[in-house]
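Structure ticket #2291
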Amino acid sequence: MKLPLLVLLSLTFSNVEAQDPAPYYITADHIFDGEVTHEGWAVLVKGNTIISTGPKEKVPMPTNSIKINYSNSTLMPGLIEGHSHLLLYPYNITDWDTQVLKETDSYRTARATVHARNTLMAGFTTARDLGTEGAGYSDVALKRAINEGVIPGPRLMVAGRAIVSTGSYGPKGYDNDMHVMLGAEPADGNALIRVVRDQIGKGADIIKVYADYRWGINNEAMPTFSIEELKLIVETSKSSGRPVVAHSSTIEGMRRSILAGIETIEHGDDGTLEIFQLMKEKNVALCPTLAAGDAIAQYRGWKKGVESEPEKIKRKRESFKAALQSGVTILAGGDVGVFAHGENVRELELMADYGMPVSEVLKSATSVNAKVFHLNNIGLIKEGMLADLLIVSGDPFKNISDLRKTKFVMKDGVVYRN
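Resolution: structure written out below.
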């Protein structure tokens, strides 16, 4: 019996689709597996999974494999951005108030698609996005578009609107008779339970709370929520298996957050040795966001490299030094959006400049971030892990800025840059 041509073509294409994709056989001068560095190693990827790693002689290259190798290169896990705002862009281009109040969510989301692509192409295959700053749940939609392959971007964990106490957050300074849209969702007391549940229901992977903010009598940062309120947030969120993270720069805001059970402190500008030791004791990690303060200081007129450092930068250096001394877990996250997406390595450069050993910086941006963020299948180059891989020219252990020399980016087994 003769089959119609369309049926034959259909069977042919079905057989092609049924064939396994060619594996990737990847080598480099140095392979940093998220914990230690190896030389003379190879990594074999099949589908979206790392199926073998080790010395080349113990990892044979399949005959049908695609070989990837760059001279003078380093292979490592895809980097993990710990603190970003894909719905924001640098304040020296457009100030925060204008972005929040005058730009539509659709316009901001259109820009965010470019920010997501730039982040991925810089080698950051995963990111925590900690609040849309007035753009509602646009981050949830952005995450979906990435997951469905509509646009390229990093694997996202999103916080949606974030939570602030009534009267503390901005934009501020407008006629009180006007209803001014805020950059986050206000709630207090028992209403926090409903708001946390509502944010979870609308797609938040993380609950972010502003444990302090610039609402003091002289516009200084002061704690916003009580310990009891923070505990309500944590208890409600943890019932769904979601972590709570806290924006906090004051010692008291940090202390309340730590005692309430929050998992990570974002910024921690005024942190002392004692408060960081308490964080270590309670297994709370610090995301210092050095690059945000560095960028804002320059927007305000500091000529970096020409003028001496402003007092705020000097205090941040001392605070970071105390964090290193305490042994608290330090995450890599720059508050990207304050500065340009795709420039995420700026935070890692500053972590090294502020005194953190480069090996620890690279662990922070890979295996440490993955562990703290409960991501058990990325952050390491090991058998069974998802194939999130980055190759850069040079050796970041000798010059951390070599992380900017991106040659190859693979996320979930898909090559986005080669």
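Closing remark: The first strand starts at residue 24 and ends at 27.
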